[in-house]
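Input set for joint prediction.
Command: fold jointly, output tokens.
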Amino acid sequence: MAKQEDRQFSESENPKAPNGEDSVFDVEDRAPAWAKEMEKNAREKEGADASREEKPPEEPLRQGRRAPEESRTDEKTADAAWRREAQKVESAAGRREEEKEEKPVRKKKTPAKRKNGKRKSGGGDERENFLRNLTIIVICSVLFVMVALMVVSNFVTGVPFLDVPRRAVTAVITPVQRLFSGVTDRVVEYLRTLKIRGNLEYEYDQLLIRLDEMATEVAVNEELRRTNQALYDLLDEQERNRAMNPVAATVIGTVGNNYFSTLTLDVGSENGVTEYMAVVAQGGLVGVTYEVDKYKCQVRCIIDSDCTVAGLVQSSRDQGSVKGTLGTNGEPMCRMYYLPDSSLPRPGDMVVTSGVGLEFPKGIPIGYIRESTRGMDDNKSFVVLEPVVDFQHLEYVTVYRYRPTYAEAAQARTNAASSIVLETLATARPIPEWQVGGVSDFIFNSTDAPKAAETPEATETPEPTAAPTPAATQDPNATQPPPNLEYKPSENSQNTATPSARPTFTPTPSPVPTPDPGAMTVEDDE
Amino acid sequence: MKALKRALRVLILTVAAYLLQVCVMQYLQIGGVAGSVLFAVLAVIVVSCGKKYAFCASCLIGMMMESMLSNVPGFYVIAYPVITMLCAQAFADMSDRQLERRRMLNENRRSRQREGGGRERWWNYLLSHQREGDLPAHLRIPLCAALMDFILNAALCVYMYLIGEELGMIHVARVTGSVLYTVGIALLLMVPLRYILRMYTPRKREKGGEAL
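tokens >
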């Protein structure tokens, strides 16, 4: 109400139509009853206060605008305008209040009302609700009847009418279901294909991984197989020559250059190894031990230029000396010197140790005769041997700790002396008779030369009797070999674990010279 | 027009649920147990649209199942409407009359308690108190689906027993698995289905009025 009065006051200060054209009658015609009564009261009040000389607050403004004789008329006009504006304002405010009163307060509906938002007052809404409910009831009834018919059709047969709902539903649903099923099958097939492809890719990756593992495993197995075969051959060889007191050794170092070839083994004097013992591998002679330490020893290979062993051509029994050629021409071969002049070995003949010289077991294969041009060339006094052993692939070897007795050495020398003419020489170390036994008879009866018994110095010398066989008798690991001990090569010595690129030679049936010297390789002398 | 649109949506949902059930769910079995999309959709319709829509949808589903997959003659066409209406009694929105009746009953109980002068015992409250409002819709939907699937599976187990099969723990496990699977489907589908049914759409603004 205070706001309304302020508004009236402001409107009175700035009347919209103060020119006096708007008459009071217009206001009375258009004003409501309460406005007329208000105007009447105001007039009465003006009549009562007519004697007063006070002017209304608006007087200065009005006097300033109009002439004094018109001021009274203007006052009436201004009051009428003020009242008219007040009526307008009040009527507008009244309309707003009425609207507010008429406007229902919107409350939050309950879920049931929200769901059934159709509930409205009025006859039209009721009719609409009635129609809606009727429709729903009809639909439900139709569905119920159809359900009932379908149920009854299961028990009553022969009535086509009962199958109408079923046929109708089937007719409608079948094509839709067929279409949807087709789409579903395609989607499922596609997903299954993706799954199969994913599985295949996964299996492929797994197989690749498995393949790598298998390849590694195969390589490891192959290595194990080769190692096993080598050890088996080693064991077999040791079993065959158990009397030679073998000991297995591993090659822990190799020194191979253009001139020397030596090996380092992991056995030494602790294992009973001494110098000048035979080292065998792959069924052939590897070399001779030297520089024996407590836990290791060096082996000088037969291809080394400094290594010389006594050899024997197995077929012709011709003896000679085998020496390495590595320092001579750089080839890992051997040469056999000092063969009899009448001997012409055949290519392919095997050369074995003769047991002469070094205290070697007899019969260890050294190599095969590769070329035999001796006699065809004056400069050549040797035959070339190709060693049995593949010196590039030595891993395991066998050291024969065998030390022959003097008797065996003498026997070996006897065998070697079959083609040697012995000369009577004064020897400082006559062979004692008690050791030689019957074997010495063969030796000394074969020739007339040795007269050892007649030598007075020999009998007086106490040394031979003091230590006749110092190495053999004092070596604890040395075994007492049976008489005529000889190396027993493997029957399948050619089938070694690590086959070399060595060509196989077939010995000729008779010891005749090679018919075609041009076909043979000729080795140049240095 | 609005009711017609809603009926059309319910019809489409029903047919889609049937097609999903008969064409897709066979590929989505878990442990040899397939859930029921039909009951999940029916639960959504029960809670969101009311009993009448649910009855129509269940009748439609029953007729389709009976016509296309009638392994037990007359079973599905009866079971689906009956089960749906049973569950609708428990999970559909309560009417205003029902709400008012419950409110009056509770008020009478409280009045009697006040006149008696003593405190209300908890068992008395537990036995005679009646809920005066509906549970949240997103809670009622999975419960309704679980109850419907359980009733159907129980009925099928009874049928199996009546034809001579021995019931054992495997059947219990299958029923449990089916119910859980159906609940999972209902939880998964209720929000999009209610969106399709325009349950999340804000009401239109009137001219110069506030949002309803």
